[in-house]
Every structure is written in structure tokens, then in C-alpha cells.
């Protein structure tokens, strides 16, 4: 069983805004790739295909590679789930979500460390014990 924990972050709003814009950029790239495949009658790219196309972009976008991969996989899953040829673009100012995989997170007391940044969270529920 997969458990999903959602926490509200106390600090680093500027960093989260920057990362969410980068995630929106990756989402829109996946959408453009899908439209290109439709235009030329190519095979629809899967999450794995999109991961291969975005390899190396994490350094330029200044986000973690796991975040880029999770965004591509979420795009492919959402597109196939809603049975759409492509999805809507996400605006630059749209504060969406920044997917973080558990294997990339380190726990430090009541905070999480991810890609060199420490995120303090509101302790609305106790943090999970042991490995995340």
C-alpha cells in the first residue's frame, strides 16, 4: 500500500515558486511533444519516453532529476487516464505542485531535506517514523 503525506511548507516560498515554474515548463514540454507526435502520426510517448527526452534538463532548470521524471510520468498518466490526445498548458504564473519522490527526501527532525534545501513543514500530523 502506498501512503501519500501532504504537508504545508512554512518557508522557502520563493524557491517553491521557482521550482513550480520549472515543473510547469516540463509539463508544457511534454504537451508540445505529444502535439508533435499527433501532428506527424507518431506513436504516443509514454512516461518512460518523456523521461528519456528530458534527460539532462534538471541542471538547466535547477530542479532535481526525480522531480522532472515524476512530472513526465504524471503527464503521461493524466493524459491516458482522461483519454485525451493532449492536455491543457499550464501557465507560467500558475503555482501548481512540485512532485518529490520519497527516495530523494531526507528527514531532519520536523523538516525535510531535498536537493540541498531544508523544508520546514507545519506539523499537522506526526511525520512517519523510519524510512520515507
Description:
With 132 residues, this protein is mostly helical. The chain has one domain (13-120). 42% of the residues lie in helices and 8% in strands. It has helices at 13-39, 47-53, 57-61, 65-81, and strands at 106-108, 111-114, 117-120. It has a three-stranded antiparallel beta sheet, with no helix packed on it.
Helix proportion range: 40-55%
Percent strand: 5-15%
Strand line-up in the sheet with most strands: 1-2-3
Structural class: mainly alpha
Radius of gyration: 16 Å
Tell me the number of strands. Answer: 3
Number of helices: 4
- C-alpha termini separation: 13 Å
Order of helices and strands: HHHHEEE
Major sheet attributes: 3 strands, antiparallel
Nearest-integer average pLDDT:
80
Oligomeric category? single chain
pLDDT < 50 runs, ≥5 residues: none
Number of domains: 1
Could you say which overall geometry the principal axes of the C-alpha atoms support? elongated
